[in-house]
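Tokens for Ras-related RGP1. Go.
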Amino acid sequence: MSNLYRGDFNSKIDYVFKIVLIGDSAVGKSQLLARYARNEFSLDSKATIGVEFQTRTLEIDRKTVKAQIWDTAGQERYRAVTSAYYRGAMGAMLVYDITNRQSFDHMARWLDELRGHADKNIVIMLIGNKSDLGTLRAVPVDDAKEFAQRENLFFMETSALEATNVEPAFLNIMSEIYRVISKKALVANEEPESGGNSSLLKGTKIVVPGHEPVPSEKKFSCCRSS
């Protein structure tokens, strides 16, 4: 069993994982990105203009992984998010504001668009942001859990303001991407033409520090069903 570490490394990059942030304007996508990538939060954040992405380098199972996290760059206000934005994405975070019911109701449309453009094996996580504003909540947790279960998504609530669950959310989506990639490599390596060197690609369970391992169908209490 191996751990997932955070940090920056001088060694070669083994994998680059592209992750896209999707959702209505003003739900806090840019703030989530700033909190995770730079540990920053700005109360007077302006709408993103132009293409924007940030990177973080991690080590997973002794492999150096660079996470390249893309923001929708304000295009969502004009429903102009292009197929190029989704191209090559291995993970996606569907972000809504827990105080804005409409932003949650739009998740089905964003999910349809994502599935129409992205790889079928993309790892998708539903994110309810602004959990610090619990007294203004307009989206019950149970509604989000039900949607996540129905659509086979991972789910967490976060607060970019208070940095609540931001790190675990990104670590978990990257852990799951790594699991999918490792499984693909293992299957490919077991093909006859590979020479049968499958012993080199044994799957390894990844545990995020501070989070107890649980069966995948119970992760975050409402995740992928088997």
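The chain has six helices and eight strands.
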